Amino acid sequence: MAPIDFRTKINWQRRYRSPQGNKSEHEILRIFESDRGRIINSPAIRRLQQKTQVFPLERNAAVRTRLTHSLEVQQVGRYIAKEILSRLKEQRLLATYGLDELTGPFESIVEMACLMHDIGNPPFGHFGEAAINDWFRQRLYPADAASQPLSDDRCVVQDLRLREGEEALNALRRKVRQDLCHFEGNAQGIRMVHSLMRMNLTWAQVGCILKYPRPAWWQGDPPETHNYLMKKPGYYFSEETYIERLRQELSLPQYGRFPLTWIMEAADDISYCVADLEDAVEKRIFTVEGLYQHLYDAWGNHEKGSLFSQVVENAWEKSRSNTLSRSTEDQFFMYLRVNTLNKLVPYAAERFIDNIEQIYRGEFNHALLEDDSGFSQLLELYKNVAMRHVFSHPDVEQLELQGYRVITGLLEIYRPLLQLSVDDFSELVEKERVRRFPIETRLFHKLSTRHRLAYVESIGKLNRQQADWPVLEFYYRCRLIQDYISGMTDLYAWDEYRKLMAVE
Q1: What distances in angstroms separate CA 62 from CA 133, 155, 286, 290, one per listed residue?
Q2: What is the per-residue pLDDT across 174-207, written as a single tens digit (0 to 9) for each?
Q3: DSSP state, residue 310
Q4: Which segments within 113-272 are labelled E, that is strand?
Q5: Catalytic site residues?
Q6: Mean per-residue pLDDT for 325-354?
Q7: Chain CA centroid to CA 467, Å
Q8: In sequence order, which ranges of 181-235 are alpha helices (DSSP H)?
Q9: 17 phi and psi, to 5 degrees?
Q10: Rounded to an integer, what distance in angstroms lies between the CA atom of residue 81 and that of residue 207?
């Protein structure tokens, strides 16, 4: 078995205009500082300030957005990374693992992956994902129903349906239909970084946000040895070639994950589990007293000295005894966060080091905080209480349904662009205004320039003389619409829907 050497994983090369030759520690750190600048100054990060964390269209600035959540994840990720490096230093293993001159890049890669981890999320969070997927599933011809396609009033009449005598294209049609019907925020994040914003980040930085090595067109059950790592789509057909190159550059196996991604994932888990509960109190879904009771009841076994008593009860008692300078709510969540971090961060670091061989190879088929320990139980406690008492609250569900309606409504508005023939849409792209298509012309003008350029670049690489041209053109056209709508903020999507539906 090859030795662990993180110098082969922390790859500072870029796909375009990559610096060549050996680099000093200082020069490598400067390269990753450039990544930080590209990420922090990107419009995708700025848009997170108007995207949902839990409560769509929230006007209370104290309630988290995707941006404030991502900043918190960034801090926790930095904490875990530092804890890992500190422990490896104590064990005199930094040099053994090739990390003695890469501690700065190690931390930076984790931090920036944490900041970026939600950039592909559409408006209205997971309900936005569901809306996009449902709409395409209902309107693309099913790949196995050539003789009985869905009725025309529900379908996008296009080239994805199977036709007699075209068996050579059947596999491609199935593949791209499956891909389009599995929109996922993580996969969209990869697409944004590479295809839409062309950020040209280092291979290591992109590898750290590839949370799942499963392609969106995957069908069937993943191998048991990688069922956790492949539980969600991680990238699209449109980025297949790029991901193949990424795997080569980072020496990743086919279904393997980049080692530092486990740290980003743990930071996200730790951050949102407490944050969602705090936001629910801020929204008056329940009081802090009610939250404590929910946590107490859900934990069950209250033995003296349990992790619950060390974390939750300790926070509760301290918040009740010291209310002179801050409210009970603020005190409780301050202590709850501190106690939770002080327990879960060292444990996440311990799990990383204990399983470092599998993690280095990209084959550790678990989350760092997913086991039968009390630490995992504490995390599940927070998540279960949020699921039962926050996400299922009528106010939250009503906002989610409104978001679902907005996304499906926008997709329906832009549907005429998908109903044009290949030749007609190509003419519209080339001329930007076609008199006989007045509606389609105006819809096309509303699309983002960045997204239109990504479409043009993608189809420019295709051979129009090949039999698969119509299928692939339509695939990238669907991607164009998904890119545009998923890139909207919650408020922009809401306003666009109201304007285009003429309800103001």
Answers
A1: 31, 43, 16, 20
A2: 899 999 999 999 999 999 999 999 999 999 999 9
A3: I
A4: 214-215, 233-235
A5: 69, 117-118, 268, 442
A6: 93
A7: 34
A8: 185-191, 203-209
A9: 50, 50
A10: 16
d(CA 55, CA 74): 21
Do 331 and 322 meet the contact criterion of CB atoms below 8 Å apart?
A: yes
User: At 52, is the pLDDT very low, low, confident or very high (cuts 50, 70, 90)?
Assistant: confident
> Burial level of 399, CB count in 10 A (0-12/13-18/19+)?
buried
Q: How far apart are CA 491 and CA 58, in angstroms?
A: 9
- Give the Cα separation of 215 and 187 in Å (integer): 8
Please name the amino acid found at residue 249.
E
Contact 27, 34 (CB under 8 A): no
- Which amino acid makes up residue 152? D
> DSSP H helical segments within 41-149, as ranges?
43-47, 66-90, 103-116, 125-139
Distance CA 51, CA 121 (A): 8
Between the CA of residue 375 and those of 80, 242, 296, what are the distances in Å?
15, 37, 16
pTM as predicted = 0.93
- The torsion defined by the Cα of 302, 306, 307 and 311, in degrees rounded to 10, comes to 70
Please give the single-letter amino acid code of residue 463. Answer: N
Distance in angstroms (rounded) separating the CA atoms of residues 371 and 225 = 16
